[in-house]
Amino acid sequence: MRRSGPWSAEETHRFLRDALVPVRVACHGASGHPVIASLWYLSLDGHLWCATQRSARVVRLLTDEPRCGFEVSLERPPYRGVRGAATARLHEDRGEEILRALLERYLAGSNVALARDLLEKVDTETAIELIPSRLTSWDFRGRMEPAA
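Given the sequence above, the corresponding structure tokens read:
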């Protein structure tokens, strides 16, 4: 895997493990224009895992063309994050497992109604595994944080 940017492999892994924001996945659209989907994710063994309904557009697009781009970044200053290129693999057999892990990561029991709604459709959930081939980190904390 190619890696660039200011962070070491461990710093990149730690950021992806700890950042509690969605991943933005850029897919090839049928029209030739990119399509971006924001999904909850978790980082396991260097791969990013998401879950969504089998009927979701992102699943159809990744089935047609598994090469994609992605970005995980903080939306408030000081800006920092990781972006990259990946190949997606779809796992219908792991949809429920990944969804439950995502609910724990993002909701931690705080929104029972949303969790219940998502779990009602668990039979048609598909896991998306993003296998990075290139990672680029960026970190503007040095330029954006106020001087002491």
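Residues 2-139 form a domain with the Pnp Oxidase; Chain A fold (CATH 2.30.110.10). Try to locate this feature in the token string yourself.
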